[in-house]
Amino acid sequence: MADATELPVVGPSPAISEVDVPSLAAWLAARGEPAYRARQILAGAHRTDAAGFADLTDLPAALRDALADAFRFSTIADSHVIGADGGMTAKAVHELADGQRIESVLMRYPARGAAAERTTICISSQAGCAVNCPFCATGQAGFGRQLTPAEIVDQVLHWHRPPWRALGDASRGHYNIVFMGMGEPLNNADRVFEAVHMLNDPDRLGIGARHITVSTSGVVPAMDRMVEELPQVNLAISLHAATDSLRDELVPINRKWPVAEVVAAGRRFAARTGRRVSLEYVMIHGVNDTPEQAGGLVELAEGWRSHVNLIPLNPTPGSRWSGTPPEGIRRFVAQLEAGGVPVTVRDTRGREIDAACGQLHAQLAGRALRDARAGAAAGTARA
């Protein structure tokens, strides 16, 4: 957390999301304001109707002005957002203070039967990614830097605040936060863990830990840390292959932590926490959708608290691979179910807006976000 009593001489002022209660209370005391306003300010900054300090009308006007002078309302400097699926999906490219860009996605699901409306917010943990999975647009873009806890949390806040509430208000119904955007979360474990605690903080958003999922391509030491430090958070493993020979190609980090070690860490997490672990598996036609891979996946997933989540590949431009066709996915599912493995197929969202990780970022590379917004508006007008 940033110390708010001393503002940096160089660089942007701290964002309100990166200031903790004691530091904010000290900043207030130096200005003759009561300490209780620290929690009041943080609660107000997390309201869904607040787009800036001016909207915190329960605070004195002079204090609102002082806050605006001393702090940024967000670590996000600019955003370009496009919607799809009749407004049920929206994707943002966010520009940070140093020009780095990251992505987040909002996905809303309508109420069905007894199930309430729910919303999932997918957020990034790094600018770029160093794991370099060849089927992922983020990996092809390379690694920029680690995100701070505030830069992670502000992606969630972005979807709570105007004007994007029109595309989906994350305060309505049940919703989940998933660390499945740009980056390998457990290669930034310290900051990701702090961001989870901030999201869980009742003085901020108060999101239940069981509604937060951290995904990993298999950083085994940090997976074991999760058992001790985030036992109520869900774990998802980006597996994508059942054998080391294939996973070495698809998920290069496998050369450091091979399949058996990664699955063993998942088993330890499930046994110690009682939480079911999701095994994420992108379906690539003719590559990892074979009966042999399905059989190997059954052996890895059976007998412990796990669940396979199949993801139809959304190919990146110029990719030599394509997604498994529906009939191939059905055969793969049938083989897993015959082996007694729980399996679902992820609902495909936002293909028309390049919603797969890293795709919209790549599309906008070299373009100012304001120019992208202007172009999108012009296209809408012509349509």
**Shape assignment:** elongated
**How large is the radius of gyration?**
22 Å
CATH homologous superfamily assignment of the largest domain: Aldolase class I
Could you name the CATH topology of the largest domain?
TIM Barrel
Largest beta-sheet details: 10 strands, mixed
CATH architecture of the largest domain: Alpha-Beta Barrel
- The helix content, as a percent range, equals 25-40%
Percent strand equals: 15-25%
The helix/strand series, from N terminus to C terminus, equals: HHHEEEEEHEHEHEHEHHEHEHEHH
User: Quick check: average pLDDT?
Assistant: 87
Class computed from helices, strands and strand pairing: alpha/beta
What count of domains describes the coordinates? 2
Unreliable residue runs: 5-10, 377-383
| Strand order within the widest beta sheet | 1-2-3-4-7-8-9-10-11-12
Concise synopsis of the structure shown:
The chain has two domains: 55 residues, DNA polymerase, domain 1; 279 residues, Aldolase class I (TIM Barrel). It contains 13 helices and twelve strands.
